[in-house]
Structures are given as structure tokens and as C-alpha cells.
């Protein structure tokens, strides 16, 4: 029997509206969750919001709001993605302002401190507010953070607590040397090379006089936790840790732990977070999948750059499953992908309106007219090997290629066999052909389930009721 699976996304900052980049990550994670459940695996699926730090404090001030009121408002918008993106109904949602999370963040601090991995020192350096981190000279590109080229780094000098990342060089090398601990492989090599280049300890607190919006450091009323040290703890606080029984034992200690993250998160998720776990005596994450960026005009889609696309606007015009389909098939799982509304519309009309939607209408219109009743529910015989292997490798685009090959073959079968003619000259043969077509459509419906759950449900209900459904994907002019 397969182990229970814990699967999580990163937590987006609530300093702006949800954008397409995060929609990509959470839809990918939801697809994987749904697939693993279909093959009999119990999954704990988690997401949430990162609500502390300098950026959020500044945005709250700019909008004339108290930080808590500000994050409450934006957290509600991210929580609403559950409906607008068609996410699994039992998805868990953790906020870093939740009391249970604050308790967990303070407990992991205490454990790392007790291990001797936290110390205090004065520090001066360049600070990127966008990434909420200090930068080394080697990090800079044209004097700025490569992730936030429009933001001028701030020179800051203060006394902070530091985490002894350097003490975990050997253990991190051993961890990162395991195959598939990071997917894709070149991201694992990237992390390994970073660790081998010699690790530096990193600041894990900020002076409360400069930044009051954060988790208080245990035992020091003048400091708050660095937002990353706080936020990374969400992966276990959502499971009820520091209670080491219950969901934490079932899904983290005894299960498989997988995270989904963007390619700019490698240093945080696979190095900082893993060192924190080692220090606290907690099992490391089993695997982290890193996706590429969604770009617009060749630049990373970013709130700070101001070139974001609103996923909710696309969803409202084209539908939830159309958005999920595009993100899964037309955005590369590992590489950057440039996305425009024109490209989305082209894929929608070609693949969904003229493709899947038209196929369902043709088959079910004929079945409703000529079959005496619904076909018997076809037996489930697992999934095609090529399809399963693609999803397991996080190649969601290739899995949908398998589905669309079946759609095209079924469409060609209709063209070649002409059931609309056959049923008039050979009623028995025509009905047998229509039963065959509806059965094959049912199998396609099963393959669509992880990717397009609402569409899959409509097709299944139509087949089992022997009724042509409403137009699934009206063509957009």
C-alpha cells in the first residue's frame, strides 16, 4: 500500500492580488493531488498565505490600514481561489498570522537555539525588500537583486540573530545528492553547486524598532523573526506540529512529503528550510518540484514589475477548466513560458471549442437521438502508461497530449465511420457504433478528471443520462 502523501505549495505574499504565476503552481499541485487520489493514495493538500514582513507592512501603511486588517482582506482573496480555480474541496489553508502557526514558528526557533544554531551579531549589508533578504555581492546583477531589477536594494546595519547554515554544509550535500529530491534534475544540480560553493550563515530576525510586523522572537522583545524563517514553518504547522502525533506523524513522519515551488525558491526551500529541519531534528522534505516562470513580453510576471495577468479575469470570461487546461498544457512545467491573452484565446478555440467541446456535442447528440437509453457504466481499467508516467514526472503537458491524441482519434473515427449515416441504414450496427463512441468518450472523461474536474463531471453525467449537455466551450470571437 502506498504511503500517505503530504503535498503543499509555497505561500504567496498577500501584498497584491493573486496573479497567474501562483495560479500555475496551485493548479499543478491540485492536478497532482487529484491524480494520486484516483490511484488510491491518501493526500493532505495544503496552501495558504504569507502575511508578515517588510513588504506587507509597507503596503498596509500605503493603504492606510492596520497590518492585520490588510492581511485579513487579502487572505480572503487567496482563499477564494479554491472556487475560482476549481481546487480540491478539502484543501487545507494555513495563514502565518494564525495562532497555531505562530506557536510552531516560535517552537522551531527554540529547538534551533537549543541546538546551538542561533546566535546574535551586528550586520551591515544590502537588503532586497522584494525578496525580504540580505544580498551578497555575488547575488547582484547591475547592482540590484536579479528577482527585483526595478527595486533599489537598501543598505541596512543592525544587530540580528543568525542561523548557522554553514554548520549544515555536509548534511545538505548528502541530502541534495539523493536522486529526485529535486525535480527537474538541473535544479538539483543548481542547489548542490550553491551548497558546495560554501554556505554563509543568514539573518533570521529584524529589529522590532524598524519592523514591528512579525512573529516575536522567543525571549527577546526587541526582535521579530525574519519572514522566511517564520513562513517556511508553515509546511509543518499546517499538520499540527509541534504536536508530533496526528496528521504530522501520518503525513510527514510516516508519509511522503512533496512541495511545489517556483524556480526562484531553490535557495529557500531546498537549502534554508532543509537546514532548519535538520537543526530541529525533523525529517527533510522528500521531494520538491520547481516550475518555471510565466513571462509577459519576455519578463517574469511579477507584482513589483506590474506586468501581471489576473487569473480571475480569464476564469470569468473563459471558465475555470479552460484556465486549468491552458496552464497544464500550454505552460511548460519546467521552463519559462510567455503567456498572452491572444495565445490563450487561440488555444481555447482550437483545443476546447472546436476540439473537445465539439466532440462531446456530436457524440451525445447522436446517442440521445438513436440509442434506447444510457450505456452501462464502463469499468475502470487504470490509466494508460504514457499518461501516468507523464503525470508522475510532472510533465502535465505531455499527459494532456495523450488525452488529445485520443480526442483526435475519436474525432477521426466519427468522420470515417459516419455513424449519423450508418444508424439510418443499419440500425443495429449504428447503435453498436454509437455505444462504442460513448464508451471511448467515457474513458477520455476519466483522463480529464485531474485536469478539468468540472468538465469531466459534466461529460460523465451526460453519458450516464444519455443527454447532450449544453455547449461546454462556446467559441470566442
> What's the CATH H-level homologous superfamily of the largest domain?
HUPs
Distance between the termini: 50 Å
Determine the fraction of residues in helical runs and give it as a percent range: 40-55%
The fraction of residues in strands falls at 15-25%
Q: What is the arithmetic mean of pLDDT?
A: 93
Give the neighbour order of strands across the main sheet: 3-2-1-12-13-7
CATH topology of the largest domain: Rossmann fold
Per the principal axes of the C-alpha atoms, what is the gross shape? elongated
For this structure, what is the CATH class of the largest domain?
A: Alpha Beta
Short structural description:
With 477 residues, the chain is α/β, with parallel strands linked by helices. It contains 19 helices and 16 strands. The model has no long low-confidence stretch (mean pLDDT 93).
Q: Which descriptors apply to this entry?
A:
16 strands; 2 domains; elongated; 477 residues; Isoleucyl-tRNA Synthetase, Domain 1; alpha/beta; Rossmann fold; four-stranded antiparallel β-sheet; six-stranded parallel β-sheet
Describe the structure.
The chain is an alpha/beta fold and 477 residues long. The protein has two domains: 5-291, Rossmann fold, CATH 3.40.50; 340-465, Isoleucyl-tRNA Synthetase, Domain 1. The protein has 19 helices and 16 strands. It has helices at 20-38, 54-62, 67-79, 81-84, 99-114, 169-176, 185-196, 227-232, 234-237, 246-253, 266-280, 311-318, 320-329, 341-370, 385-392, 396-417, 419-425, 427-448, 453-465; strands at residues 5-8, 43-49, 92-95, 118-128, 133-135, 154-163, 182-183, 202-203, 205-207, 216-217, 220-225, 256-262, 287-291, 294-296, 299-300, 337-338. The strands form four sheets. Strands 3-2-1-12-13-7 form a six-stranded parallel sheet, sandwiched between helices. Strands 5-4-6-8 form a four-stranded antiparallel sheet. α1 (20-38) links the parallel β1 (5-8) and β2 (43-49). α7 (185-196) packs across α11. The chain is elongated, with a radius of gyration of 25 Å.
